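Lab notebook, design round three. We kept the backbone fixed and only want residue identities now. Task for the bench partner: fill in a sequence for the structure below.
Input structure tokens:
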């Protein structure tokens, strides 16, 4: 199975993390650094194995079996909340090497994490005024 970002999801970087907004359901998701990295690998369809291999090349301190388990888990979470979609396999062979992404040199691995938040929780957690978030709904 391959996964890809849902086209309507908006994303904003937060240092090493990311804040996603799913406008159809008015829901926000905060991704830790590793989940954000996984998200960034999905502008085009990719399998969990492809992403795990890239993750191992980019992060230190993680073995491929652990990375694959974590990637599969977080992709299932992303699929469950509909921020990614499952897509049919492409003509590219499973396991074919993807273009190598930017290295996360010096970053240690942390298991990926997604946290769902309401608009009020985002405003409170990041101390953002209502005016500062209007660009999400434009």
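Proposed sequence:
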């Amino acid at each position: 199975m391959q996964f890809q970002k849902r086209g309507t999801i908006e994303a904003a970087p937060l240092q090493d993390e990311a804040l996603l907004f799913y406008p159809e359901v008015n829901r926000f998701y905060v991704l830790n650094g590793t989940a954000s990295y996984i998200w960034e690998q999905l502008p085009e369809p990719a399998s969990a194995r492809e992403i795990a291999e890239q993750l191992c090349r980019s992060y230190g301190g993680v073995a491929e079996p652990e990375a694959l388990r974590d990637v599969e888990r977080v992709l299932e979470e992303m699929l469950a909340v509909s921020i990614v979609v499952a897509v049919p396999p492409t003509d590219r062979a499973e396991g074919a090497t993807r273009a190598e992404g930017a290295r996360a040199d010096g970053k240690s691995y942390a298991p990926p994490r997604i946290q769902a938040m309401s608009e009020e929780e985002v405003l409170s957690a990041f101390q953002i005024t209502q005016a500062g978030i209007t660009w999400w709904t434009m």
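Keep this in mind before ordering anything: Residues 2-95+112-137 form a domain with the Outer Surface Protein A; domain 3 fold (CATH 3.90.930).
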